[in-house]
Amino acid sequence: MRLKTLMLGLGAMTLAFSGCVKTVESRVTVIPSKAVIVTTGGKEKAAAEELALHLKLITGVEIPLKPKAEKGDFIFAFDPGKLADNDEACAWEVTKTKAIFRGKVQFAVLDFLENALGVRWPGGDDVSFAEMNPLVIAGLSGAWVPELKIRTIRYRADASNSAFARRMRAGSHDGPVYGHAFTGHWKKYGKDHRDYFAMRKDGIRGPSNAKPDELTGNVAVYAADTGNTLAICCTSTGLVAQIVKDWIKAGKGEYINLCENDVPGQNSCQCPACKALDVVPERVDPKWETHYADRYVYFGNTVLGAARKFRPDVKVCYYAYNATQDAPAREKPDPASIAGIVPTVFTDDYVKAYVGGWKKAGLEHFFYRPNRHHYFGCTYLPCGFEEHFFNLFKHLYSQGAIGFDYDAGSVPKHSFGWLDRYVLFHAMQDPSKSYGYWEDHYCQAYGDAAPDVKAYCRFWREEVWNKRLEPNMDVIVTKGKWFNFGRGLLWNLKDYYTAEDFLAADKFLAAAEAKPLAAPQKALLENLRIAHEHAKVFFEAVAHKSKANTEKLVAFRRAHDIPVYNWSEQYYGDITGVEGLLGKEKKGDK
Predict the structure, then answer these.
(1) How far is 262 from 321, CA to CA, in rounded Å?
(2) Tens-digit pLDDT profile for the chain (590 aa)?
(3) d(CA 431, CA 446)
(4) For labeling, which of 167, 211, 367, 428 is most exposed (least CB within 10 Å)?
(5) Alpha-carbon gap, residue 184 to 436, rounded angstroms
């Protein structure tokens, strides 16, 4: 394991790049009515508010936020600043009179809540905690220095998903600059520098949707419509000079972003110079050409050569994605190259071969930026694929990934997307732990019902994913078209799920519900029950289409505040029959 140990000058405290390390086994008791959170706002404002919220939940007492303490108060205090040469590093320490949070103080508070007070955040803005008054703090110090430079699972902005990502310590430090780099170039340079852009098969450089005679006129007319759809010319010396010029003007940062636009291979540049760099395989899929990596590696190396005259330690970043998905056959990536690898297939063998091919070609540095949460978009069904994707994470980490940025949408309430994200986020915090460790960590949110909830989750993994879905992943993806497993599954749902599956899983929930639980854990279990019952009516509406089944689904959703219309269900072709029953969604519909 790539593990580094640092000393922060905090006595004998050890900070490990793999997570919280407790060095003192002891306890401190705090009387909430005699405690104060000392803060002046600024950098520590969010951390102070998060701490106050959780201490009120746990103790039932609202501990005040004040700029200074009174004599005899137990003090919760903050010392923001950079630790261990890492903007995200944090540490906390508790004595009989004070708890202090250092470094990135928001992360320090979260580490304290999770590891000293046993708080769990199993999904959305849900909080699982044990009520205590007085407050008993077990474990008096901890610290965390994240090794991975990128730790992200994206979402569409909403309060619930935002709270979850924040509490999972999503973030980045010292990471590469990346993202489709040339989306604005046609608007800026299309009129005067057509040589920067991909040549079409008809010999014209410009957007693929523009007619030849239109491109002899005012090319700027098409600027608003090109966006991500126009490739660049990898052998354009003018483009290389322009990139370096723009980079110098922006301050000569450590990274130059060269990530190509979101363009299929067949729309890559057709000029003779670019085509001469390609190593074309004997068999080419005309619908998904992926043999253009050599030209982009050449392009990255050329930019590096030009930029090093102005900053010797400069680095470039590009994607192994779409046209450049398959590793180069001839060109070798410069050691100062970082690739964002973006697979479209997620079987173990494919991902291992994909990463292995790039490493064999000479790539030394990469991060993982898949679209898989979109491709596997069926969060109203328990699929059981959490361990599969955790194991892919572990393999990628073992191969040297410097970070993980999962492109994704939000997880809706009363759905099954949280366990997957929980274990991935915690794996990004501490890659040394096993899937079973983080699965148990998640299930602890359910208190005494944890073993039953774990058995419920394992049922879907062992009976459905392991036996039916994973062995047929390629088949399902093919049926779903364009790598979309979720669509392929929901279009053929009755081939893989049965009504009896939900009855079999129900016994684990029933066992959990028979346990005496405190209010926070009972509320979580009630939400899981709603998700389970919703999955049953969702299954019937999709697998056994009828007006009656759609009506039951709509009634259930309205009764439990679940959106009646869901984007993916319409994108997949009104799979639930809601549009057929109620008509197209109108603004404001629920």
Answers:
(1) 8
(2) 343 333 333 333 333 333 444 444 589 999 999 999 999 999 899 999 999 999 999 999 999 999 999 999 999 999 999 998 999 999 999 999 999 999 999 999 999 999 999 999 999 999 999 999 999 998 899 999 999 999 999 998 899 999 999 999 999 999 999 999 999 998 899 889 999 999 999 998 988 877 777 676 555 555 445 556 789 999 999 999 999 999 999 999 999 999 999 888 999 999 999 999 999 999 988 888 999 999 999 999 999 999 999 999 999 999 999 999 999 999 999 999 999 999 999 999 999 999 999 999 999 999 999 999 999 988 899 999 999 999 999 999 999 999 999 999 999 989 999 999 999 999 999 999 999 999 999 999 999 999 999 999 999 999 999 999 999 999 999 999 999 999 999 999 999 999 999 999 999 999 999 999 999 999 999 999 999 999 999 999 999 999 999 999 999 999 999 999 988 888 899 999 999 999 998 876 65
(3) 24
(4) 211
(5) 46
- Nearest CA to 35 out of 63, 68, 67 is that of 63
C-alpha 409/C-alpha 420 separation (Å) is: 13
Secondary structure (H, E, C), 344-404: CCCCHHHHHHHHHHHHHCCCCEEEECCCHHHHCCCCCCCCCCHHHHHHHHHHHHHCCCCEE
Residue 182 Cα to chain centre, angstroms: 23
Torsion angle of C-alpha atoms 560, 442, 145, 399, degrees rounded to 10: -100
35: which strand partners?
74
- Tell me the C-alpha distance between 91 and 215, whole Å: 59
| 3-state helix, strand and coil shares in percent for the chain, rounded to the nearest 5 | 45, 15, 45
> What separation in angstroms does the CA of 136 have from each of 91, 97, 118, 142, 285?
19, 13, 11, 16, 63
Give dist(CA 301, CA 281) in Å, integer: 23
Q: Which amino acid is at 504?
A: A
